[in-house]
């Protein structure tokens, strides 16, 4: 009987307190659409429970006494009996159900919780409103329109064949590219056959991953001697051009040219002299000459003025420097290098070579460098 009065009060009130047990609170829920069931639900009330609302406000007891025409004391006894029964059911069965309202039960912390059961709509304004089923409307295209759409999709999916002129133009571009590639390859091959060129020097990767000193040697330029004897330099340059032209016309004449040029290397020999009586005389010892060519590693530090791809060019530069009183030498190419380096002086330590750099820069410019052989 108490359950029936509680449900009736929830229609007209937002809160119904059960003395010494807790209060049931209603909350307005607006109309909503269920996208899965495709239904439209009218506005309603949702019920929650607060076990801290235990203070008797007299609403439930007064309603029971008035409806049943009994005294409030008798109505209070009925409510107390109902609360006692609810607690006994919770202790024994761990749950108690209020018909069409919800279920009371204990959680793992032994606290009373309430699960609302959506039954009758307790909102008077929505009394008698059912759930409305609203199925989505599917638009049906006419048969002619569907046929046109399919034909258009098939036409778009089919690959469009390019016209003959476009294909001919593309073939022309491909042929031109292949011809240009072959021409570049043939040019590089012809350059590689020349004695002055090396394909490895055209490779930019070698300048990055190779020895830094080798890169400096490949990019080195000849440092002109800045002196008052400019006329002698012009004469030396003319002789250099004439000699190099002769070398290109007769590549194997290097030995003859070097032997005929007294400025390159003075060779001395001891000849056996025979007298009238066919008696041999003592051999004449060759005078000692300082070597102007350095082969192999010697650990010394050289001040380099330039690097050359040919020994002939390096020897001409050495002779020009030697004319001004410097002990110039030619360093033969080491491992990983193809350049003949011309030095103006050499020292036993790097500190001595660096200390002399400023003095030699005044004559040979700022492009000289120290090389450890």
TrEMBL record:
Start and end residues of each SPOR domain? 295-373
PROSITE patterns reported for this sequence: SPOR
Q: Does the keyword Transport apply?
A: no
Gene3D superfamilies membership: Sporulation related repeat
DNA-binding recorded as keyword:
yes
Q: Name one Pfam family in it.
A: HU-CCDC81_bac_1
* Gene Ontology molecular-function annotations: DNA binding; peptidoglycan binding
Q: Where are the transmembrane segments?
A: 171-191
**Keywords associated with the record:** DNA-binding, Membrane, Transmembrane, Transmembrane helix
Q: What is this protein called?
A: DNA-binding protein
What is the source species?
A: Pontibacter lucknowensis
